[in-house]
Amino acid sequence: MNNGLKRLWRGLRQPSRMALGTLLIIGFVGGILFWGAFNTGMEMTNQEAFCIGCHEMQENVYEEYVSTVHYNNRSGVRATCPDCHVPKDWTHKMVRKIQASKEVLGKITGIVDTPMKFDEHRLQMAEREWARMKRTDSQECRNCHNFEFMDFTEQKGVAGQLHARASAEGKTCIDCHKGIAHRLPDNYQGNDALSSALSSSSAQPASK
Description:
Number of strands: 0
Number of domains: 2
Shape: elongated
Number of helices: 12
Order of helices and strands: HHHHHHHHHHHH
Largest sheet: none
Radius of gyration: 25 Å
Strand content: under 5%
């Protein structure tokens, strides 16, 4: 009995090379499996089907989004929910996922489970998202639209002038385009004529 315990203790204090190799292999393979499963799960939550899995999103902002040019347009390029609301780089994506826990809480507690309740909280939710996009310099928008790559002379109407001015003044997309994919809250007090116009036009079916 005592000899057995002594041998076990010696083995623990001085493990063999084979034991160390086995532990390293198990740890390495386990790490790969964990990381693969984690990233697979993260990618599943970045699908539009996941975003509109609850009726709060599907029956409110998603219905507004499908009538806009971001959903249906002549070029066939579509910006989905994650394209606009989930950062692509890993660090900011993790931060956004943690922040999204508040939205899950709103679902569980029924804070926004009816269109009326949703509208009551629409301004608060919108302002929180506008502030996030302002902090990131509208990074998700700039994945597709970037002042540096725009030929202002080719843009129609006053768009070129406004974009050139915004670029010179250091403005970011969300400063002017708050109503581009979802209607503005009824109690929005901002002096943003462009957003109001875009919000009104987004209620019309997009041209194909």
